[in-house]
Design a protein that fits this description.
By secondary structure, this protein is mainly α. It has helices at residues 6-42, 58-68, 79-95, 114-135, 139-170, 175-180, 203-220, 232-235, 245-270, 288-316, 322-350. It is globular.
């Protein structure tokens, strides 16, 4: 139950939103640096190492560079839509975090249909990219925007079907409930079948589902090897080629916010969210805040691990051709995800967990 005083409720909710936004922005600054460092390490380079100790302040230097540069708008562009597009992308990149549970009770909005809300917000995200590509009044950004729209729609289908397997296992669309169902030992995590050792039979099904979710998340967020909307060799830089300064920064922040959100979703749906994989009996005498803080750190560690996996995919996998990307989405992932849903549904109906 929340507070009954509307002003107190408003203050607590606003404070929670600000905390999440600040946390996401600070995380993006250092995860973006980590992305560049990992890429550099794979190529046996140093990476950013000049600004601040070990290059830790590089992202903040880039931020000030973008903010202080002049905003250049092409002469033939639709100015209002041109400036509105990155703002819409940014807002839609952040509103998804409202339903992500960081620890027990630590969630801005504990919606019973949190997964539907997330799918709706991620589907709307394509509008910012289409508007940015169209308003630029240039064929390269427009081609990049159309590519991005087709790509995001294609992989949302498989992501939605894979999420149904998790909903079938958990019996809920509430993200906090999904995490709570995975508490206890590591074999309770959905990637191992969820619900204890009796569900280990569907471990192969859920491992395939998790792998497909990870690959679909790469495509959904326009990350390499699926960064076709930003393919330099064909489209210069895709939908944001005419953008500079702060509007370009907003696009990039929105993109990285979506990437980290996908890392959080993999952790919540398949890897137990804030659950460390074993009972934490040693925290019995701790204050509730300290216990929740520890669990939030566990969740953050999982997000960082999956961001590392995103960065490694960027560094070591060559870019797909566009026809290969579409074939993978429609001819491989769509039928496979339908089979996975049927398999998990059959297990829920006919298996011992029924």
């Amino acid at each position: 139950m929340g507070p009954t005083n509307p002003l107190l409720w408003f203050g607590l909710t606003t404070g929670g939103i600000l905390l999440v936004v600040i946390w996401v922005l600070l995380s993006l600054a250092f995860l973006l640096l980590a992305d560049r460092k990992i890429w550099a390490g794979v190529q046996m380079r140093k990476g950013p190492n000049v600004v601040g100790p070990f290059g830790l302040l590089q992202s903040f230097a880039d931020f000030f560079k973008f903010v202080l540069k002049e905003i250049v708008i092409p002469a033939g562009a639709d100015k209002a839509i041109f400036l509105l597009a990155p703002l819409i992308s940014l807002i839609l990149g952040f509103v998804g975090w409202a339903v992500v549970p960081f620890a027990p009770g630590w969630v801005v909005s504990n919606l019973n249909v949190g997964i539907l809300y997330l799918l709706a917000m991620s589907s709307l995200g394509v509008y910012g990219i289409i508007m940015g590509g169209w308003a630029s009044n240039s064929k390269y950004p427009f081609l990049g925007a159309l590519r991005s729209a087709a790509q995001m729609v294609s992989y949302e289908v498989s992501i939605g079907l894979i999420i149904i397997t998790v909903i079938l296992l958990a019996g809920s669309m509430n993200l906090s409930t999904i995490v709570e169902k995975q508490s206890g030992w590591i074999w309770n995590w959905n990637v191992f079948g969820g619900g204890g050792l009796k569900n280990l039979v569907i471990l192969p099904v859920m491992v395939v589902a998790m792998g497909m979710f990870y690959i679909s998340a790469l495509a959904e967020t326009n990350r390499p090897p699926f960064d076709l909307p930003e393919a330099e060799s064909e489209l210069v830089a895709g939908y944001q080629v005419e953008y500079s300064s702060t509007p370009y920064l907003l696009f990039m922040v929105a993109e990285y916010s979506n990437i980290v959100l996908m890392c959080a979703m993999i952790s919540v749906l398949f890897f137990g969210g804030w659950n460390p994989g074993f009972p934490i009996t040693f925290t019995a005498g701790w204050p509730p805040f300290l216990v929740n803080f520890l669990l939030a750190l566990v969740f953050y560690a999982k997000i960082v691990f999956w961001f590392f996996m995103f960065a490694m995919a960027k560094a070591i996998v060559p870019r797909y051709r566009y026809d290969q990307l579409m074939r993978l989405g429609w001819k491989v992932f769509l039928p496979t995800s339908l089979v996975l849903v049927a398999a998990v549904a059959a297990w829920r109906v006919f298996g011992p967990a029924a």
